[in-house]
Amino acid sequence: MSTERVVGVGAGAAGFDPAFERGGAGSDLPTTDMVLNIGPQHPATHGVLRLRLTLDGERIVGCEPIIGYMHRGAEKLFEVRDYRQIIVLANRHDWLSAFANELGVVHAVERMMGLEVPVRAVWLRTLLAELNRVLNHLMFLGSYPLELGAITPVFYAFRERETIQAVMEELSGGRMHYMFNRVGGLKEDLPYGWLGRTAAASAAVRKRLPDIEDIILGNEIFRARTVGVGKLAPELIAQYGISGPIARASGVDADLRRDEPYLAYGELQDVLRVVTRPEGDCFARFSVLLEQVKVSLDLVDACLDKLSSLPAGPVNVRLPKILKVPEGQTYAWTESPLGINGYYLVSRGDKTPWRLKLRSASFNNISVLPALLPGTMIPDMIAILGSMFFVVGDIDK
Length: 397
What we know:
- The protein is of the alpha+beta class and about 400 residues long.
- It has a single domain, classed as Orthogonal Bundle (Cytochrome-c3 Hydrogenase, chain B).
- Helices cover about 45% and strands about 15% of the residues.
- It contains 16 helices and 11 strands.
- The strands form 4 sheets. The chain has a 4-stranded antiparallel β-sheet.
- A hairpin with a 7-residue loop joins strand 10 and strand 11 (about 355-360).
- Helix 5 (about 120-145) runs antiparallel to helix 12.
- The longest helix is centred in the middle third of the chain and has 29 residues, at about 120-145.
- Mean pLDDT is about 90; it is low at about 1-25.
- Belongs to the complex I 49 kDa subunit family.
- Its EC number is 7.1.1.-.
- It is a peripheral membrane protein.
- GO terms for molecular function: NAD binding; NADH dehydrogenase (quinone) (non-electrogenic) activity; quinone binding.
- It comes from Kribbella kalugense.
């Protein structure tokens, strides 16, 4: 954390008049603003994100998010790798949502090729996408209270994560980067007895979830730090293209799984609930995330029931050794755990894409900070930043 002092006369750096705020005689008085750098290496920033804050005392009058410290140029790397290799890169930009990241790429390629994925693979993908959503949300449910000084919840959250990770690792061999999607389906079928073990894991997490709910939502200190803090208006949601749990916590009733169903979500509309809150503050964002875990577990159980009734069959489509996508373009998007991920694919008929543009949810979630933070105090900034649910790799893709 570093500081530099900026001296000005009259209004502050963001059009804010500190002299007027302190009850001074007017803008002819000299004022001193402090510029505080939070990050790029700082516990509050979840990684190498830098926030350049302009302060009047402890009040924020301006915020400039500075990104790019871990930029990996994934979109350019996509252009020199074939469609199988792209999946390896794509599942890493949001390292908490690897399976969801893979889905967008394979959806775009399958749409361009006109491939019909086997029914069994469709339901398996839906199941794994929801298990991945639970893993993502549990990480934030544990880490967010940690930002506010509560250490215990992260241990509860990681206990539940390990329960789900066990079945995901058994299936794919990976704990974070599953590499289980393939163009045309999935890598392989399920291990014997895996559906039963997954059902047991889902039941265990559901049974213990109230522990997290009670220890956090019932805590008066947590409520004092989050209720009414960082209110995000629906107008800002629309202006900045924010999606996912953050948008729904501000009353925006939007979810691609319901509004433009893909995978097997069209057959799960009676199970899928879109969780919204009207308040738009830090507490609402956290409570939406917690409630969405319950919805995802409901979807997991429904998928398990369906898969148990399906006959044995293929989980992928046989493809040529060298995979080439017909010339053309398409746009595929998915409701990833942090919001909408979009994939714009342009092909010239080669084995590598001519262009694959990635629209990530975290980038939009962070872009609203200059409009959200001015007027707040530094301690509230930490609470707000933690409730914006982003992964830095998803910003610096």
